[in-house]
Amino acid sequence: MMQTYWKKGIANRRAVFELYFRQMPFGNGYAIFAGLQRVIEYVEQLKFSDSDIEYLRSTDQFDDGFLDYLKDFKFEGSINSAVEGDLVFNNEPIMQVDAPLLVGQLLETALLNIVNYQTLIATKAARIKSVVGDDPVLEFGTRRAQEMDAAVWGTRAAYIGGFDATSNVRAGKLFDIPISGTHAHALVQAYMSDYEAFKAYAESHYDCVFLVDTFDTIKSGVPSAIRVAKEMGDKINFQGVRIDSGDMAYISKRVREMLDEAGFTNAKIYASNDLDEKTIMNLKMQKAKIDVWGVGTKLITAYDQPALGAVYKLVSFENVTGEMVDTIKISSNAIKVSTPGKKQVWRITDLADGKSEGDYVTLADEDPRKQDSIFMFSPDYTYINKTIERFEARPILQHIYKDGKLVYNQPSLQQIKRSSATHLDLLWDEYKRDLNPQIYPVDLSQKCYDNKMMILHDMHDYVNHLKF
Ligand SMILES: Nc1ncnc2c1ncn2[C@@H]1O[C@H](COP(=O)(O)OP(=O)(O)OP(=O)(O)O)[C@@H](O)[C@H]1O
Ligand SMILES: O=P(O)(O)OC[C@H]1O[C@H](OP(=O)(O)OP(=O)(O)O)[C@H](O)[C@@H]1O
Ligand SMILES: O=C(O)c1cccnc1
């Protein structure tokens, strides 16, 4: 496509692309945006090396002139985006590229790859965090992640979404995420004895969490952990034990009794084994005595919904006379009809209660802050509407790149994580429940809606009059 644009002389025409997803992941009431840091890293290194160009030449698909042009390629144009940790919803732009057509086109797949994955994992993490409450929850997924990059960036996204620490030490180093972990069954198997293994571990570590389920949790694992903790006394910090199999409600209660009877009332019970928000909620209902949750596979692979499904669509394009013309993608499936025009998303907060009323999608030249009231209506069911009078409108898409230059000061990961929790506080609980949440309104301004309808009718007219 880049070669076509270049050869046909439209490569430098201004094009606006927007990235959005159509359905809320996991049936959740909100999603947590993540991926911007990696998008910036990607854009910063965007160029074609000599070996890239030689490779492209070897495919015999490209003109020499086009390949010469690629030698000096660099990102130019502007990117507006939701910022990491903010809440985002379906059918609203969460990233926007306003750039020469060829540049915007090149970014499509990379941006989708990054935002689709990281937003999905941050959202899954937030769902899990919502059921663990104040208990610590640890990211344990690296061994099951879809390769190493997913493990590291997925860990970062999970941290944004509410996880407290990770067993991925590289993610700890790269992003300053707290690291935490216990030990595996192999250590116990190497000694073929719980007691010998825990003793060896205790003699080589200060902080100790013993994995007690290798042979028999109640008969061997926990008694051995207690014995080692007593023998080592102050020489170690006996943090607790981890259970990784069996009926975790029953076993955790038994383990709690044993630890308490031995005087280790502060020792914590860690649990892992295919946990997710459903199992955790269920274990809590059963009053399982679990203090710390280790979650791996089902978080890092977004097990119950492995793709967010975000798309990247051309919404406006410069015509031959230099005017911007809004574009549409039509489908017989209503949800797949794109909304034309360069847009902005405004989070509307009712000043009376400080809670979010919904998101209001306008064309980019509209500013609801200049209005006394906003008429919000559902674009699918226009009879569902409301007028808001005392409100605050916060723009969700922020300037990240302007005319090729990075203009966004990236906050620290800690700030991002905190901002995510603050944004969630502004959402009514009805949108935050795990099961069948209320649907958060994402409404189009009248101007944006009318523009869409007009273009839709024009395109239908055009198609109906085609003759071949
Ligand atoms: N009391 C409980 N209520 C609901 N789910 C539980 C309870 N206890 C354990 N689970 C979950 O049930 C599943 C049990 O899986 P599975 O049978 O594979 O584990 P296991 O046999 O105990 O151990 P292993 O992983 O070694 O095979 C896990 O997802 C676990 O988190
Ligand atoms: O279950 P997850 O949520 O993915 O959490 C991580 C799992 O990884 C480890 O298991 P391991 O690879 O040793 O296999 P196991 O299932 O036999 O314990 C650990 O003991 C957890 O069970
Ligand atoms: O530290 C742990 O106990 C751990 C880490 C990753 C996966 N499973 C367990």
Shape: globular
Number of E strands: 21
Under CATH, the topology of the largest domain is which? nicotinate phosphoribosyltransferase
Name the CATH superfamily classification of the largest domain.
Answer: nicotinate phosphoribosyltransferase
Mean pLDDT: 97
- Identify the strand order in the major beta sheet: 13-12-1-5-3-19-20
The CATH architecture designation of the largest domain is Alpha-Beta Barrel
Small-molecule binders: adenosine-5'-triphosphate, 1-O-pyrophosphono-5-O-phosphono-alpha-D-ribofuranose, nicotinic acid
The CATH C-level class name of the largest domain: Alpha Beta
N-to-C span: 25 Å
Compute the number of helices: 16
GO molecular function: nicotinamide phosphoribosyltransferase activity; nicotinate phosphoribosyltransferase activity
Catalytic activity: 5-phospho-alpha-D-ribose 1-diphosphate + nicotinate + ATP + H2O = nicotinate beta-D-ribonucleotide + ADP + phosphate + diphosphate
Enzyme class: ligase
Pathway: Cofactor biosynthesis; NAD(+) biosynthesis; nicotinate D-ribonucleotide from nicotinate: step 1/1
